[in-house]
Amino acid sequence: MGKRLIQQRRGRGTNTYRSPGHRFRGEVKHTLMETSGMVMDLVHCPGHSAPLMEVSYITGEKRLAFAPETIKVGDSIVVGPGAEVKEGNVLSLREIPEGTLIHNIELRPGDGGKMVRASGTFAKVVARSEEGVRVALPSKKEKLFLPACRAAIGILAGAGRTDKPFLKAGTRHKKMKARNKLYPKVCGVSMNAVDHPFGGSSSHIKGRPTQSPRNAPPGRKVGKIAPRRTGRKK
């Protein structure tokens, strides 16, 4: 029997699961042109965990950028080739020396930055070769990027955000409501049989396998979706 799972209700698009984007300051992307500017203000955006800075460029354009550590109002920012390797400047990976700490890395040249955008995070340029530029990500994994992909220099500000405990559920509720995240999360085995395939029997025993095939219907496609392997690694 099909069930109305949370992921199905989320796809319906009601206000319950819609992000409150009207409260956000705006999107953060690298500007496509080679330019320079000045940091006018440091701002907070509910949609981003890291502090943002308002940059006014000499072309008259104003954009939001992630604020690295040690940045302050009045500092200059340079975007483009030949820029100095200092906090806030944006260069292509082929120009960044090995061992430099970076953030907001582009997956494809010109997409404005997709990776390493959370507060207090940073990546490190490990090596450069003919294949591309190898970067160590915050997860300790290394990824190969195209040399033309751009990144901003420095460690993102806002480190230690997760060190402070919430202490009570109401504080966490307000944090989740700022981005309209679903809270609290209830595991499937705690639900009733009509709400989840793992629910029912008044216990935390699933009663059915946690793996589901790739072509399972929406009311059954829960748990591990077509896993390549399960169990502990030997």
How would you describe this structure to a colleague?
With 234 residues, the protein is mainly beta. The protein has a domain of 119 residues: SH3 type barrels, CATH 2.30.30. Helix content is 7%, strand content 22%. The protein contains 2 helices and 12 strands. The strands form 3 sheets. A 6-stranded antiparallel beta sheet has the order 5-10-6-7-8-9, with no helix packed on it. A 4-stranded antiparallel beta sheet has the order 3-2-1-4, with no helix packed on it. It has a two-stranded parallel sheet with strand order 11-12. A hairpin with an 8-residue loop joins strand 1 and strand 2. The longest helix is centred in the last third of the chain and has 10 residues. The mean pLDDT is 92.
List keywords for this structure.
single chain; 234 residues; mainly beta; SH3 type barrels; four-stranded antiparallel β-sheet; 7% helix
Task: Give the DSSP E fraction (strand runs of 2 or more residues).
Answer: 15-25%
Give me the count of strands.
12
Show unreliable segments. none
Radius of gyration: 22 Å
CATH class of the domain at 22-65 and 79-153: Mainly Beta
In the CATH hierarchy, what is the architecture of the domain at 22-65 and 79-153 at level 2? Answer: Roll
Q: What quaternary form is this?
A: single chain
**Mean pLDDT metric:** 92
Helix fraction by DSSP (H/I, runs of at least 4): under 10%
Secondary structure category: mainly beta
Report how far apart the termini are: 37 Å
CATH topology (level 3) name of the domain at 22-65 and 79-153: SH3 type barrels
Major beta sheet summary: 6 strands, antiparallel
**What's the overall geometry?**
globular
H/E element sequence: HEEEEEEEEEEHEE
Strand order of the largest sheet: 5-10-6-7-8-9
Tally of separate helices:
2
